[in-house]
Amino acid sequence: MSKLLFWQGIGRPSVYHAVIVIFLEFFAWGLLTTPMLTVLHKTFPQHTFLMNGLIQGVKGFLSFMSAPLIGALSDVWGRKYFLLITVFFTCVPIPLMKISPWWYFAMISVSGIFAVTFSVIFAYVADITQEHERSTAYGLVSATFAASLVTSPAIGAHLSNLYGDNLVVLVATVVAVVDICFILLAVPESLPEKMRPPSWGALISWEQADPFASLRKVGKDSTILLTCITVFLSYLPEAGQYSSFFLYLRQVVKFEYASIATFIAVIGILSIVAQTVFLSILMRSIGNKNTVLLGLGFQMFQLAWYGFGSQPWMMWAAGAVAAMSSITFPAISALVSRNADSDQQGVVQGIITGIRGLCNGLGPAIYGFIFFLFHVELNELAPVEDKTARQDPSDENAVIPGPPFLFGACAVLLAFLVALFIPEHSKAANTRKHSNSINSIQSNSPDRGSDEDIEPLLQDSSV
């Protein structure tokens, strides 16, 4: 079975296999944007937003705990098997939305254990691309994620208005099944056979499975530590913004559902352009580190604009800046991948994905708490003309309409300051590390599956 799973597929491994997997998975979830808000509000009529933060918090924490293990396992046993597992368990909750909302939200929380598709996908891409091609490939994957959000929420909202939420859930389930079948039948294995053990009996040490062991080793490598802190401080506000922004546009800025769908589509298209065209140009012209800094600058600016802005035109203008800030994560992923051995890509990307998973849990909770402190209620889904989002438009909220976004801008400012200390080049360390890796492979090639040959993190990198 494992032999069949590893070797079947259409053609040679390519970036296009990865982007199709990502597109289908997030397209399925994007279809559920409108039904999700409805089910969430009906299931938790009181403190809807806080319950959403709790659910996402559990999911994010489990993702953080499991990401290093899944990354390490994919470095040993291959990417395809874990692509299948992560996509399957991430999409399992979809049909439960209409069968049992309580089971649906429970499964969303538990699915965080396997909600690390991005780490496996980025490791897949790293297996099949050269270093100078990697940032462009990562940008294409991230742009595909944005592309899945261009059409799916609008399509889901349109189908929901015409035929009801049941059809939307059915379509999303079918898309998820197609994604699973595509991985099973069409995606070839990217990890070279010589880097996989001869059998499935290869041992994985507890150090590789322990996320806190990875964190301890991160702490010993100052450059990786700086990179991880940058990811944490920049993605924490992004996760909170993503979880609350559509409700914020609806309740506070008074966007209609059609306007929200159009907003998502336009910003998604701009993000695709940023991550495919501008990212490649910037990486070649100003370098990897400066591209990260530029992306953080765009993110800080758009969050501050959302924090002080209250007019619809400001939301659109800041959204264009937000689209440019989408270059940050693929640039950081390329920076980390460039300094990892070929047999460590899954582990390294798993650590970054784990940190993002932790932010996916903390971000919504922090944003919800700040909204609560400033009396900005996002619990209601009533028509905008019948509700006021604020208790008193003359209070302090009129000065700072979006307080959590201002908090996010401050966090990104800290991320920017930390990123300034990340070295741009580490060729000497890379050369030393590469030679050590070659010597290790040559001396241990008969026993590639032993746990002594597999380090859970970068060896002696100084990214």
UniProtKB/TrEMBL annotation:
<dbReference type="GO" id="GO:0016020">
    <property type="term" value="C:membrane"/>
</dbReference>
<dbReference type="InterPro" id="IPR001958">
    <property type="entry name" value="Tet-R_TetA/multi-R_MdtG-like"/>
</dbReference>
<dbReference type="Pfam" id="PF07690">
    <property type="entry name" value="MFS_1"/>
</dbReference>
<feature type="transmembrane region" description="Helical">
    <location>
        <begin position="103"/>
        <end position="125"/>
    </location>
</feature>
<feature type="transmembrane region" description="Helical">
    <location>
        <begin position="405"/>
        <end position="423"/>
    </location>
</feature>
<keyword id="KW-0007">Acetylation</keyword>
<feature type="transmembrane region" description="Helical">
    <location>
        <begin position="218"/>
        <end position="237"/>
    </location>
</feature>
<feature type="domain" description="Major facilitator superfamily (MFS) profile">
    <location>
        <begin position="14"/>
        <end position="427"/>
    </location>
</feature>
<feature type="transmembrane region" description="Helical">
    <location>
        <begin position="81"/>
        <end position="97"/>
    </location>
</feature>
<keyword id="KW-0325">Glycoprotein</keyword>
<feature type="transmembrane region" description="Helical">
    <location>
        <begin position="137"/>
        <end position="155"/>
    </location>
</feature>
<feature type="transmembrane region" description="Helical">
    <location>
        <begin position="54"/>
        <end position="74"/>
    </location>
</feature>
<keyword id="KW-0812">Transmembrane</keyword>
<keyword id="KW-1133">Transmembrane helix</keyword>
<dbReference type="InterPro" id="IPR005829">
    <property type="entry name" value="Sugar_transporter_CS"/>
</dbReference>
<feature type="transmembrane region" description="Helical">
    <location>
        <begin position="291"/>
        <end position="308"/>
    </location>
</feature>
<dbReference type="InterPro" id="IPR020846">
    <property type="entry name" value="MFS_dom"/>
</dbReference>
<keyword id="KW-0813">Transport</keyword>
<dbReference type="InterPro" id="IPR036259">
    <property type="entry name" value="MFS_trans_sf"/>
</dbReference>
<keyword id="KW-0472">Membrane</keyword>
<dbReference type="InterPro" id="IPR011701">
    <property type="entry name" value="MFS"/>
</dbReference>
<feature type="compositionally biased region" description="Low complexity">
    <location>
        <begin position="436"/>
        <end position="445"/>
    </location>
</feature>
<feature type="transmembrane region" description="Helical">
    <location>
        <begin position="257"/>
        <end position="279"/>
    </location>
</feature>
<dbReference type="GO" id="GO:0022857">
    <property type="term" value="F:transmembrane transporter activity"/>
</dbReference>
<feature type="region of interest" description="Disordered">
    <location>
        <begin position="432"/>
        <end position="463"/>
    </location>
</feature>
<comment type="similarity">
    <text>Belongs to the major facilitator superfamily.</text>
</comment>
<feature type="transmembrane region" description="Helical">
    <location>
        <begin position="167"/>
        <end position="187"/>
    </location>
</feature>
<protein>
    <recommendedName>
        <fullName>Hippocampus abundant transcript 1 protein</fullName>
    </recommendedName>
</protein>
<feature type="transmembrane region" description="Helical">
    <location>
        <begin position="15"/>
        <end position="34"/>
    </location>
</feature>
<feature type="transmembrane region" description="Helical">
    <location>
        <begin position="357"/>
        <end position="376"/>
    </location>
</feature>
<feature type="transmembrane region" description="Helical">
    <location>
        <begin position="314"/>
        <end position="336"/>
    </location>
</feature>
